[in-house]
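Q: For a teaching handout, I want to show students what a protein-ligand complex looks like in token form. Below are the inputs, and the small molecule is NAI. Please produce the holo structure.
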Amino acid sequence: MSKPRLIVTLGDPAGIGTEVVLKALSDRSLAECDLTLIGNRELLIDRYEYLCQQVPSTVTLANPSDLKIIDVSLPPAIRDGVTIGRGNAASGAASFAYLDLAIDRTLAGEFDAIVTAPIAKSAWTSAGHHFPGQTELLAAKAKIDRFGMLFVGVSPHTGWTLRALLATTHLPLDRVAQTLTPELLSLKLGLLVECLQVDFGLESGTIAIAGLNPHSGEGGQLGREEVDWMDDWLDREREIYPQYKLLGLLPPDTMWVKPGQAWFGTQPHPQAADAYLALYHDQGLIPVKLMAFDRAINTTIGLPYVRTSPDHGTAFDIAKLGIADDRSMKAAIQLAGELVTSRAQN
Ligand SMILES: NC(=O)C1=CN([C@@H]2O[C@H](COP(=O)(O)OP(=O)(O)OC[C@H]3O[C@@H](n4cnc5c(N)ncnc54)[C@H](O)[C@@H]3O)[C@@H](O)[C@H]2O)C=CC1
Ligand SMILES: NCC(=O)COP(=O)(O)O
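A: Here is the structure, written as tokens, with NAI included.
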């Protein structure tokens, strides 16, 4: 089989996107993928030259002149408006243009997967692009409304694989309860099952599902969603997916004890689940980032192609320092290659 063709966006040019990409691409093991960067060549070269002065001699950076690059030309006002360490309308316009073109080229069949460096949602908004995140732009351009945000990480301590899907994502907390419906949860669980089967070869297994309220509502005393509809919803899903053991609705704090042990222990915990369904952003991402911030991968499931991304953001606070950790970006590129290969074989 030919090498997976990956397009890697440089993300917000005021953040650490270019840095983590150039650091990651200096790793020769990534040569198993056919990689193309997409971004503004002039900003990329400026950044490379700056970083060469910043990083210690033990750190290597890929040289842009050795890489395939799709150059996204930017009007001078946008290019000159980018200020390292501060997201603004110019950096938002640039990062949006990179992703927008990457999607078009991928939908046209030129690439098998998109790996995205981080963008700032607020910079997109300042630039007039009103999407909650890259995920929603990817879904809108693919014309799908069935998609999910799944985080994946492999423990360096035990080899155990953490998989956590978010039922809702970039939503104010006070809108979560009204957004959760039986239909939405069925859609997300169905996507998760498909992904476990197609991408991870798990035809059966265990999926743990969190409740919404403290102690999963404590029988209605601490919140009513579980007793009013979520318990019945889960009973129905158990009939639909008899090959999976659906655990739940688990108290949302203690749900993470076994995965924590499976991640940090000396061997995978026998009772850790194959996947976790968290009901809102921070219910899932606080534990994921505590366990795996240096290496977790954000992948969009349900798209007609593979999309991965590091789990971190633009890190404007360290963008001038040259100290960004590229392991999550490297893992995102590796996983994209693996998923493309496994989908081609299925
Ligand atoms: N996939 C994406 O495009 C994501 C984008 N974001 C965006 O990033 C912006 C900043 O968000 P924050 O919540 O501050 O999260 P963040 O991940 O950018 O930063 C959180 C903390 O972690 C540190 N950090 C992040 N990545 C690092 C790395 N690779 N190496 C070393 N240290 C690192 C930062 O310096 C900061 O102290 C927001 O505008 C948000 O929208 C946030 C998460 C994901
Ligand atoms: N917190 C996760 C996140 O912000 C992912 O955003 P995006 O990949 O949709 O841009």
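A: Two things your students might notice: The two ends are 13 Å apart (CA to CA). The pocket of NAI (ligand 1) is lined by residues 16, 20, 118-122, 134, 298, 309, 312-315, 317-318, 324-325 (CB under 6 Å).
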